[in-house]
Amino acid sequence: MKKLLFILSCLILTSGLWAQEPVNEELVEAIRKHGLDQSQAMKTAQLMMDVYGPRLTGSPMLEKATEWAVSQLEEWGLENVHTEEWGPFGRSWELQHFEMHAHTPTYWSVIGVPKAWSPSVKADEAEVIYLEANTKEELDAYKGKLKGKIVLVDTLRSIEEWFDAPARRYESDDLLDMANADMPTPRPRRNYNTTGGFSFNKYLWETLAEEDPIAVLDRSYKGDLGTVFVSGARTGEWGSYREEGTKVVPQITLAVEHYNRIFRLLQQGIPVKLSLDLKARYYNPDDGMERNIIAEIPGTDLKDEVVIFGAHFDSWHAATGATDNGAGSTVMMEAARILQEVIKETGVKPRRTLRLALWTGEEQGLYGSRGYVGEHYAEFPEGTYNPQSIKPAQEKVSAYYNLDNGTGKIRGVYLQGNQAVSPIFRSWLEPFKDLEAGTLTLSNTGGTDHLAFDAVGIPGFQFIQDPMAYFTRTHHSNMDNLDHLVEDDLKQAATIIASFVMHTAMRDELLPRKPLDLEEAKSEE
Amino acid sequence: MKKLLFILSCLILTSGLWAQEPVNEELVEAIRKHGLDQSQAMKTAQLMMDVYGPRLTGSPMLEKATEWAVSQLEEWGLENVHTEEWGPFGRSWELQHFEMHAHTPTYWSVIGVPKAWSPSVKADEAEVIYLEANTKEELDAYKGKLKGKIVLVDTLRSIEEWFDAPARRYESDDLLDMANADMPTPRPRRNYNTTGGFSFNKYLWETLAEEDPIAVLDRSYKGDLGTVFVSGARTGEWGSYREEGTKVVPQITLAVEHYNRIFRLLQQGIPVKLSLDLKARYYNPDDGMERNIIAEIPGTDLKDEVVIFGAHFDSWHAATGATDNGAGSTVMMEAARILQEVIKETGVKPRRTLRLALWTGEEQGLYGSRGYVGEHYAEFPEGTYNPQSIKPAQEKVSAYYNLDNGTGKIRGVYLQGNQAVSPIFRSWLEPFKDLEAGTLTLSNTGGTDHLAFDAVGIPGFQFIQDPMAYFTRTHHSNMDNLDHLVEDDLKQAATIIASFVMHTAMRDELLPRKPLDLEEAKSEE
Question: Which residues form the Peptidase M28 domain (chains A, B) (predicted)?
Answer without folding.
Answer: 292-501
